[in-house]
């Protein structure tokens, strides 16, 4: 156990040094991949970590996310990297966890409790007959008082300006004292660099040192994927049961409570099916076939799409409410299930209408991240409806929905990170410049990887009459040279940035852009 603690603490220390070497005044790119390889290596060396198939899958997923940062270097790929890292760490130290949501929370908890984890591991270090345990016994007596003093000092500083002035002076003098000592022994050492190293040390320690409390993992183990009929006695009432009883009086205590809930469900879904049938009929007749834009169609498409997606989410919530418990086992619930499945089919038709609306929006106004986001949300709604159907048909629990949807969402996140969306958007919009209005301001706001494409299409960066969602004209410069000057400034900024970082910030997209403009590092 002592050797294990020594190994992990040494790994955290080396990780802190590696962190400050890789990321000090650098951009996120190749350095993230190197850092991830280090974390993966230490995790698989750690004998306390079980090398299960699940861990290997999430480790490969994280490695793919790190490679995508180097290849695509987009905001989405960086976000995917962080999410995959937290999931990998969560599953590595809590292998019985089954959902990505719990793994994410476990990783956050592990990061927050870094001081406690470090103290526990440090107390196990021994060199011969000498060990640090007595020292940390003393520290634990002053740890809480110090935290309390810091907390209330901050409160008092916020409440009293004079107190805040004295507190700031004291802290400044203490910081200056330590800085003078540091500069006396190490003249060229930067305080900012030391803080950066400390942050890397804490971060690496939080990723490698497992939290000793497994309460979260144990709590999730109690969750079941298959629904079980609960026969509740008069003395066994849940919090939800008591809340509903307040509003329903003795309705829940009657023997016909389940039948009453069934009748309410049938009436509700008959009404909802009729309501949605009317909406779908209108959409099919006016939107699916022979749609002709008229009036403020942009606002209609935009607002209508958002509302429909929200309604689909609410539809799934209504289904989950009615099939949350014993109604799943009611012997006469077949008509209700048929109504629910019919409503799911109608919601699927509604999603098709969302796709068509967004398609028209893209056809007339071009691609943007938000319009792509609408398509992604529509796909997620289809997946949600499919899993809700499985929940009703197979009598599954809400936990099952979280588990399945979480895994699918993460897989889709990795899949969408494979695409370089900025380049895709610019290429599509410029190729359709004779059909859609070119929003030059939007195109010039995208990442540097699009600069070569914009430079090749300078003639298309011109003023285009554009209107907002409510039909009002957006004022834009009418001189085409304005956009070309903006592009030249962007190229200049890229050159300055590219030359200011080392090989640690290398990524394929920046390299391609630099090659196009003939830029090389000095």
Q: Would you write up a description of this structure?
A:
- Helix content is 71%, strand content 1%.
- The chain is mostly helical.
- The chain has three domains: 2-217, no CATH class; 257-396, no CATH class; 426-517, no CATH class.
- Keywords: Membrane, Transmembrane, Transmembrane helix.
- It holds the Pfam family DUF4153.
Question: How does the overall form come out from the CA principal axes?
Answer: globular
Mean pLDDT: 81
Q: What percent strand?
A: under 5%
Radius of gyration in whole Å, from Cα?
A: 30 Å
Number of helices: 21
Kindly give the count of domains: 3
Task: Give the strand tally.
Answer: 2
State the strand order across the main sheet.
1-2
**Helix proportion of residues, in percent?**
over 70%
Instruction: Report how far apart the termini are.
Output: 50 Å
Q: Low-confidence runs (pLDDT<50, min 5 residues)?
A: 251-256, 467-472
Category from helices, strands and their pairing: mainly alpha
- Main sheet summary: 2 strands, antiparallel
What's the helix-strand series?
HHHHHHEEHHHHHHHHHHHHHHH
Keywords: Membrane, Transmembrane, Transmembrane helix
InterPro entries: DUF4153
Pfam families: DUF4153
Protein name: DUF4173 domain-containing protein
